Amino acid sequence: MEALILAAGEGKRLRNIAKGPKFKLRIENIPLIYYPILTLASIGVKKFTVVVAEKYYNIAHEVLKKLKERYKILILRNPYPEKGNGYTFLLAEDSISEETFFISMCDHIYSKEIPQKILEIMVKEDADIVVGADPIPKYVTIEEATKILANSDGKVLRIGKEIRKYNYVDIGVFMMKKTVFNRVRQLKPRSYVSFSDIIMEALNNNCKVVIANIEHSVWTDIDTPDDLMELLKGRRRIVLDKVYSEVYSFWEEN
């Protein structure tokens, strides 16, 4: 299996407590980007394409050096990270080799049962895109989250940060068929492309987009100093303890 890690965000809101790119931020002495990579590796992913801001390309090679000893990791440059994570996604088209692949934001920490559920739904529904979705998120700031409106059959109708009517929150983990690139690459010339724009464009071009309901699974993201403090010392610590245990055990056993 294969995965694309979107890691071109600069983490500007964390600058007062962390230097350099967000993916380098150490959580329990592990770089943040190790969490999604090792979680996905633990369910069988062997190849990773990681897209980073061009100015952090060399840092990415250094940070990922240990993982490159075990997995095939291709690091791509994004010269325009300000154009959004949808643009970052589009830069990876030529690097994806398998028919289906995972996509993960680099700053999301989640248990391995989440990508397992997403894979299960992809196989069951034969969807073009599966979106990890939580109807009752406990460990994120809802105001900053990307929202999803899905129907009773689990088909996505709308997605975005600003939509008013929603019944799920996007958890930052997806699975997609490579053929979706054919339906969305026309967005690339835009000055800004969010990943929600990618999904909406796919919907508008008749792609089947469904949710994987991961209610009761643990996950969180890190955008602000408050998020980080909650992860290390507050109510989000339960997420870190579970996922750290999973990735540490996997690393030691493999």
List keywords for this structure.
26% strand, globular, 9-stranded mixed sheet, single chain, two-stranded antiparallel sheet, Spore Coat Polysaccharide Biosynthesis Protein SpsA, Chain A, alpha/beta, 254 residues
Please render the helix and strand layout as text.
Layout: E1 2-7, E2 26-27, E3 30-31, H1 34-41, E4 47-53, H2 57-63, H3 65-68, E5 72-78, H4 85-90, E6 100-105, E7 108-110, H5 113-125, E8 129-134, E9 147-150, E10 156-160, E11 168-177, H6 180-184, H7 195-204, E12 209-213, E13 219-221, H8 225-233, H9 237-253
Parallel strand pairs: 1-4, 1-6, 4-5, 8-12
Antiparallel strand pairs: 2-3, 6-11, 7-13, 8-11, 9-10, 9-11
Task: Write up what this structure looks like.
By secondary structure, the chain is of the alpha/beta class. The protein is 31% helix and 26% strand. It contains nine helices and 13 strands. The chain has helices at residues 34-41, 57-63, 65-68, 85-90, 113-125, 180-184, 195-204, 225-233, 237-253, and strands at 2-7, 26-27, 30-31, 47-53, 72-78, 100-105, 108-110, 129-134, 147-150, 156-160, 168-177, 209-213, 219-221. The strands form three sheets. Strands 1, 4, 5, 6, 8, 9, 10, 11 and 12 form a nine-stranded mixed beta sheet that branches. Helix 8 (225-233) crosses helix 9 (237-253).
- State which percent range the strand residues make up: 25-35%
Described by strand count, sense and barrel closure, the largest sheet is: 9 strands, mixed
The share of residues in helices is 25-40%
What is the number of beta strands?
13
Q: What's the number of structural domains?
A: 1
- CATH fold annotation: Spore Coat Polysaccharide Biosynthesis Protein SpsA, Chain A
- The ordered H/E elements are EEEHEHHEHEEHEEEEHHEEHH
Distance separating the two termini:
17 Å
- CATH architecture descriptor: Alpha-Beta Complex
Mean pLDDT over the full residue set: 95
CATH class placement = Alpha Beta
- What does the radius of gyration come to? 17 Å
- Summed up, the helix count is 9
> Regions with pLDDT < 50 over 5+ consecutive residues?
none
Query: Can you tell me the CATH superfamily?
Result: Spore Coat Polysaccharide Biosynthesis Protein SpsA, Chain A
Gross morphology: globular
Structural class: alpha/beta
